[in-house]
Amino acid sequence: QVQLVESGGGLVQPGGSLRLSCAASGSIFGINDMEWYRQAPGKQRELVAAISSGGGTNYADSVKGRFTISRDNAKNTVYLQMNSLKPDDTAVYYCAADIAPYSDYRYHYYWGQGTQVTVSS
Question: What is the pLDDT of residue 31?
């Protein structure tokens, strides 16, 4: 069974940095796009950053120049380096990925359980 497990969230002061990690585990044949979303209280979930299997990236305008998404294909892991954090970045951050398990070789969309990021002084 495929699982995505995030880590690295926490409390940080404005202007600080955090690095989120999300590791995919299970019997995995392949992984296409990997993405980070976030959801703040009372708001809809939004796409923060995405990275293709080839390393192409996309970012929400609100995080461009501050956040960097990367992946380690050998470890089936995606990262989100967050710098110059602002209180508006406070949210639960979720990773998601398009994964094909060996059970059927078909790509399915999986979600992690989420990790809280709080930016506050």
Answer: 97
CA angle, 10 as apex, 115 and 40 as ends, to 5°?
55
Whether 93 contacts 37, CB under 8 Å: yes
For residue 108, what is the enclosing H or E element? strand 108-111
pLDDT at residue 7, as a whole number: 95
> How many Cβ atoms are within 10 Å of 12's Cβ, its own excluded?
18
CA dist 7 → 43, 59, 85, 105 (Å):
22, 20, 17, 27
Burial class (CB in 10 A: 0-12, 13-18, 19+), 63: buried
* H or E element at residue 81: strand 77-82
